[in-house]
Amino acid sequence: MEPINSLGRRKAAIARVILTEGTGEITVNGVVGQEYFPITLQQFKLQQPFKLTSTEGKFDVSATVDGGGITGQVEAVRLGIARALVKLDPAHKPSLKAEELMTRDPRTVERKKFGRKKARKRYQFSKR
Question: Could you state, in order of their start, the residue ranges of all structural domains in the chain?
Fold first, then answer.
């Protein structure tokens, strides 16, 4: 099996994912996945596409992630893994789509407007 490349994005994070046959090892930016994403919920999100398609331990994942924070990076890698699994076998798509792993989450931070404290928060109004 030749390597499968895919791309995942979330907020400001971009993940390039390479899926190869192997033992289920996940490396992110050259570091083991459990060390790069130490929180249990993040590790669950990394394994979620494999659990839904019952392909745990069959593929190695090598991902490079740029930008964003930890949560955005985890979800970008998850989207990249899901897209790679669908490239490998299109029969996986319905189960991944049912859990909303095939759609890119379009929510991003709204820009700050001038004359305001944040994007929508305003300075306190003083009547007198």
Answer: 4-98
Q: How many other CB atoms are found less than 10 A from the CB of residue 2?
A: 6
Q: What are phi and psi of 120, to 5 degrees?
A: -125, -25
The CATH classification number of 4-98 equals 3.30.230.10
Residues in the chain: 128
Q: Is residue 102 classed as helix, strand or coil in its secondary structure?
A: coil
Q: Which residues pair with 49 in a beta bridge?
A: none
Q: pTM, whole model, 2 decimals?
A: 0.90
pLDDT tens track for 49-88: 999 999 999 999 999 999 999 999 999 999 999 999 999 9
Paired strand residues for 71:
none
How far apart are alpha carbons 83 and 112 in whole angstroms?
33
